[in-house]
Design goal:
The structure holds 2 protein chains of 2 kinds. By secondary structure, chain A is mainly α. Chain A is built from 6 helices and 2 strands; from the N terminus they run βααβαααα. In chain A, 77% of the residues lie in helices and 3% in strands. In chain A, helix 1 runs antiparallel to helix 2 and helix 4 packs across helix 5. By secondary structure, chain B is mainly α. Chain B has one domain. Chain B has 25 helices and 2 strands. Chain B is globular and about 60 Å long. Chain B starts with a helix and ends with a helix. Classes of the chains: A mainly alpha, B mainly alpha. Chains A and B meet through helix 1, helix 2, helix 4 and helix 5 of A and helix 11, strand 2, helix 12, helix 22 and helix 23 of B.
Chain lengths: 155, 502
């Protein structure tokens, strides 16, 4: 089976894109501000070029393909993984309105459900973790994390 | 300073057990959580420490600080999530030990290395304080450039099978580390227009994303984070495993001692911290090992070196704070505020005018470490059972709780989103073998390296030969070259007899 090297190019592609943006952003700066970045970015570009050549040689010899399989496999975990990321995005986006305690409770409930948890643990765990987070972050350490209805009720 | 004075100081500090023990417990809790650094916790508790007598305030802060340094290694070993930057190197061998079902032994190694590393360096600091306070004056930007390079060489060292991928990861991390305003003109670089990135990429969201979130996204592929044999060993965990961990620590006592002194020497230098100390100690430990190829597979030395070094830093950080009035780190700066609030004047005079406070700080640290070993060692057996929790429950809790912790350091919602972005990058790196530790080393050391390099070049008006202008610096350069050449020479020597065989 051919080695799926498409996935191996994602990090180099991200790094190359970022390096290009970095060079544009420092173009007009004084040498002190860009010396280090130019040096690091230059070496990074060379390393990526070597990686690209290595991939091209493997492709030319028919030993590799440009598939992205390692990123998706195993397929059964893909839905859980994507679901967890989506829940986390929703948690961050709604934290300002829901506050830490309610937001964490709902997000953890949703994430556990997506992961396949059922029964008592699905209810008990989110309540326990949300309560612990409230005690540590809000009550004890008085962090400035957004307050929602529960924090306002308990204050 | 007389023996009577020292004994009186120890007696006084032991009498403060009711301050030290709760501080240790609080330090362990916040140390386990990435995002709650000791300085943040101390700032939040500033009203308390300003209200009580200075001796009690210092005992509380010191105990919390030391416990925090120790606790960062716990999640690093159990779930590959370093509680702080100083514990990032602990994941390299601590987590593989857990996967082999040796979580309890790894935790005991972490605790003993931390406590004895911290204790030895604290006692050494008390004895050698006048001389140690001078070291910081000799390690200037030129020498620190080389110290940073010692840490950066670890990128190649941890590469494993694919050096090119590790180097790409490391240099990608270094470039990310350059984000933010430059050190001379404060002009923003590659900030994507976000004001939150003007101070550079915050370490905690990067740490949480690259380790905690990426690891959680990967661990859901399996039911447990350990394999069947590891599960069986974890289920059969007994006190004998704690004893085995202690036995391993005793066998490696010299390793604890010398890596702790690496931490002490780096800690004395203002600005350098536990992260660089842990990585340099790990790199040096591997370099001088007879079995360097075993590093990264879960060996005791790989846990001892970073843990001992990052606790060796604790006393070192306070040397320039007290002796010179220059805080050795952000936590030391908070302690300095409390001391100054109580009317103490930092600098050499402090040892003449208030010796009970100046030396008391280090005595308090030694006492905190003694209390700590008795507080935490019995917990290793129970902590190690975390590996038996199914990933169905563990992964969502890790992702969401650490995302909340990402808020802790700077109190920005932006940092939570940033942690998620790093989590996705870390996941891709993890699945394609681009070593997340290499990326993190770059992010950690990149800004420090740039800071020292630009400072050195600025002083010399751009003349790079300044990097070879000091005797100490040149000795360090020599050691750096030696540390790069020695592994190559060693592998050449190992290959040669094989070739000679028919």
């Amino acid at each position: 089976m051919k080695n799926p090297l498409g996935a191996d190019l994602v990090i180099p592609a991200l790094a190359l894109g970022f390096a290009a943006y970095f060079f544009v952003s420092i173009a007009d700066l004084a040498w002190e501000a860009k010396a280090n970045g130019v040096m690091i970015g230059g070496v990074l570009v060379v390393l990526i070029a070597v990686q690209l050549i290595r991939t091209a040689v493997a492709l030319a010899r028919g030993k590799a393909s440009l598939l992205f399989n390692p990123l998706w496999e195993p397929r059964e975990a893909l839905v859980k993984r994507a679901g967890m990321v989506a829940v986390t995005v929703a948690f961050i986006a709604t934290l300002g309105w829901l506050g830490l305690t309610l937001g964490l409770l709902l997000a953890l409930f949703a994430a556990l459900w997506i992961m396949g948890a059922r029964g008592k643990a699905l209810v008990v765990l989110p309540i326990a973790v949300a309560a612990a987070a409230y005690l540590l972050f809000v009550a004890l350490l008085q962090s400035e994390i957004p307050h929602g209805p529960i924090e306002k009720l308990l204050s | 300073m007389t023996w009577d004075f020292l004994l009186a100081q120890f007696a006084a500090q032991f009498g403060l057990w009711w301050v030290i023990v709760p501080a240790i417990l609080l330090g362990i809790i916040v140390g386990i959580l990435p995002g709650f650094s000791p300085q943040n916790t101390l700032i939040m508790l500033l009203p308390l420490t300003l209200a009580v007598p200075v001796e009690q305030a210092m005992a509380f802060m010191i105990a919390l600080y030391c416990a925090n340094h120790l606790a960062g290694g716990i999640p690093a070993i159990l779930v590959k999530i370093p509680g702080s930057g100083g514990a990032a190197a602990t994941t390299l061998d601590g987590y593989p030990m857990t996967q082999k079902g040796q979580a309890q032994q790894a935790l005991v190694l972490c605790f003993t290395a931390s406590v004895f590393g911290g204790l030895i360096t604290t006692l050494a600091t008390i004895a050698l304080l006048p001389w140690l306070s001078q070291i910081g004056l000799y390690l200037r930007s030129v020498e620190m450039v080389v110290v940073m390079l010692f840490g950066l060489t670890l990128i190649a060292v941890i590469a494993g099978k694919d050096t090119l991928k590790a180097l790409i990861g490391g240099f990608f991390g270094l470039l990310i580390g350059v984000i933010g305003t430059d050190h001379i003109y404060n002009t923003p670089r590659a900030t994507f227009g976000f004001l939150e990135l003007y101070d550079g990429v915050p370490l905690v969201p990067a740490l949480i994303g690259l380790f905690a979130i990426s690891e959680a996204l990967v661990m859901i592929e399996e039911k447990l984070i350990v394999d069947q044999s590891g599960r069986a060993r974890a289920l059969a965990a007994r006190w004998a495993d704690t004893v085995e961990g202690l036995r391993l620590s005793l066998r490696k006592w010299w390793h604890i001692v010398w890596t702790a002194f690496v931490g002490l020497l780096i800690g004395i230098t203002p600005g350098a911290g536990a992260s660089i100390a842990a990585f340099v100690a790990y790199q040096q430990s591997r370099l001088w090992s007879k079995t360097p190829e075993l590093y990264g597979t879960g060996i005791p030395e790989g846990v001892i070196a970073p843990e001992s070094a990052n606790n060796g830093v604790t006393s070192g950080t306070l040397v320039p704070t007290l002796a010179l009035g220059v805080p050795g780190g952000s936590t030391a700066a908070v302690m300095m505020i409390v001391l100054q609030y109580h009317g103490m004047v930092m600098g050499p005079r402090l040892f003449a005018t208030n010796p009970e406070v100046a030396y008391g700080v280090f005595v308090s640290m030694a006492v905190a470490y003694i209390f700590m070993i008795f507080t935490i060692l019995p917990l290793a057996r129970y902590m190690s059972r975390v590996v038996l929790i199914e990933t169905t429950y563990l992964a969502p809790i890790i992702v969401l709780v650490t995302i909340v912790a990402a808020f802790g350091e700077r109190q920005y919602l932006f940092d939570m989103a940033l942690a998620l972005v790093f989590g996705v990058i870390g996941y891709i790196a993890h699945k394609t073998n681009y070593h997340v530790t290499a990326i993190l080393i770059g992010i950690l050391l990149g800004p420090l390296f740039e800071q020292y390099l630009v400072r050195a070049l600025r002083i010399s008006q751009g003349d790079v030969t300044v990097l070879f202008s000091s005797t100490i610096g040149n000795v360090l350069w020599g050691l750096l070259v030696l540390s790069l050449v020695l592994p190559l020479w060693r592998s050449y020597m190992q290959r040669t007899p094989l070739k000679a065989e028919p």
